Backbone:
């Protein structure tokens, strides 16, 4: 491995910690809800709000952080996100009442939204073309690790709190279990904040701000002097071409030349969520319990979901720059659709018990269906969406464009999570999974027609091809 590659990997790994914090922050609440309900005497709606409020502010942050980062740079926005994660973790850990807790969670939501889109964008802007897909996927990998670590950390705090270890008792891990679950996030968040001082500003952003020399120095460390000079020239040329067009505003995103890339961006933003990933993530134990295997086994199987997601994401990282984005996306969607049909069939073949509950299902088939779905997602929609988002749009409006697509992604996620329990009750699990499966099939048909292959090309080459092609 050359010194250049080592440097770039180090930078990408540090920046991608934003993904870890995002995954941790979003899922840590799953372990908290059962304790805050009784402690603050909450209604179901209030509990729901404690969970969903974060997605609301992260949607807002997605809208804002792209344009803000176009203006002030990518790095300041990431640092702000790190601070928000830290403050939110500490404030929610010591919250004296429910409202403070929700306010603190909402503050963290701003960090989630910002990290979710700025981290992958930054990495795409600094990475050499031939490994860009892999490096941007570090971010998704970190999201997935963050989700799993939060589950594990919740479990650990809970068990230590129940133990009679004297240090655990003096830290009051038992009485304050949910406070510790939320508070521990401050440690990685503070680490992230300080580690960000050691990464440079995005070279492509520097060029946009007329700081070509600084950009050249960074690009040289990333891919050597000769390559850096030709990259810099390409970035500058693309900016000259863009400067002759209208200003980089939201309006420009809707110009006819942008139609193809915007359509692709919106389609995958919707598809990533509408096929139900967060229903499975946030309600996995509940789904497994419906298959009739009992609570403990259900929690065990939920852990498997996290592991499979992690393994699939690693497979995607290994293949994305070799096979390309399209084959991963298409095979992943085929696996998702098949798994959903399997789930619809398995739940559909259940019988009704005496009080209307579903009985006599095949829990193994259901487990295979869920794990298949998560594996399909992990090699395709999970990582590839972020890679494509960071590649499709021209330099000058990348920030705005990713914000816009992220906003759509987040809103669809919010709605899907919200209606899932309602769907289960009114349509039943079989129909619900059939709906997800149909969306996957529709996505497969549209995707096969419109998805471009972007592997190994520079962002500027892609711009010429995708944006002028209309
Ligand atoms: C999605 C999240 C999802 C996660 C699961 C991300 O790419 O945006 O909504 O929870 O993947 O791995």
Residues:
């Amino acid at each position: 491995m050359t010194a250049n590659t080592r440097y770039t990997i180090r930078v990408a790994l540090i920046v991608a910690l934003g993904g870890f914090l995002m995954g941790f922050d979003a899922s840590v609440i799953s372990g908290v809800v059962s304790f805050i309900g009784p402690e603050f005497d909450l209604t179901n709606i209030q509990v729901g709000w404690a969970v969903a409020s974060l997605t609301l502010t992260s949607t807002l942050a997605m809208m804002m952080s792209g344009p803000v980062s176009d203006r002030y740079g990518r790095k300041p926005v990431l640092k702000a996100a790190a601070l928000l994660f830290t403050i939110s973790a500490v404030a929610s850990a010591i919250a004296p009442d429910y409202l403070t807790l929700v306010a603190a969670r909402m503050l963290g939501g701003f960090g989630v939204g910002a990290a979710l889109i700025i981290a992958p964008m930054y990495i795409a802007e600094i990475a050499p073309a031939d490994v860009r897909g892999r490096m941007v996927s570090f971010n998704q990998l970190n999201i997935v690790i963050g989700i799993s670590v939060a589950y594990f950390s919740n479990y650990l705090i809970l068990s230590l709190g129940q133990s009679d270890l004297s240090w655990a008792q003096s830290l009051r891990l038992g009485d304050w279990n949910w406070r510790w679950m939320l508070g521990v996030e401050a440690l990685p968040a503070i680490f992230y904040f300080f580690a960000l001082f050691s990464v440079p500003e995005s070279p492509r952003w520097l060029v946009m701000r007329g700081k070509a020399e600084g950009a050249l120095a960074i690009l040289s460390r990333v891919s050597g002097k000769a390559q850096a000079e030709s990259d810099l020239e390409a970035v500058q040329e693309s900016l000259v071409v863009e400067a002759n067009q209208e200003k980089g505003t939201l309006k420009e995103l809707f110009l006819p030349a942008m139609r193809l890339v915007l359509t692709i961006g919106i389609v995958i933003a919707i598809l990533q969520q509408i096929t139900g990933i967060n229903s499975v993530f946030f309600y996995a134990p509940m789904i497994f319990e419906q298959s009739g295997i009992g609570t403990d086994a259900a929690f065990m199987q939920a852990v498997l979901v996290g592991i499979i997601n992690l393994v699939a994401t690693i497979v995607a990282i290994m293949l994305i720059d070799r096979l390309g984005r399209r084959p991963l996306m298409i095979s992943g969607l085929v696996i998702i659709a098949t798994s959903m049909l399997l789930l619809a069939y398995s739940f559909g073949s259940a019988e009704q018990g005496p009080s209307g509950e579903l009985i006599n299902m095949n829990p193994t088939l259901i487990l295979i269906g869920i794990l298949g779905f998560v594996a399909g997602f992990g090699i395709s929609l999970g990582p590839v969406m972020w890679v494509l988002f960071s590649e499709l749009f021209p330099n000058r409006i990348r920030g705005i464009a990713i914000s816009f697509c992220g906003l759509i992604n987040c809103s669809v996620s919010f709605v899907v999570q919200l209606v899932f329990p309602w769907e289960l009750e009114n349509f039943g699990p079989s129909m619900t999974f059939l709906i997800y499966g149909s969306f996957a099939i529709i996505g497969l048909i549209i995707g096969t027609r419109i998805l471009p292959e972007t592997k190994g090309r520079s962002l500027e080459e892609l711009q010429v091809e995708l944006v002028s092609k209309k």
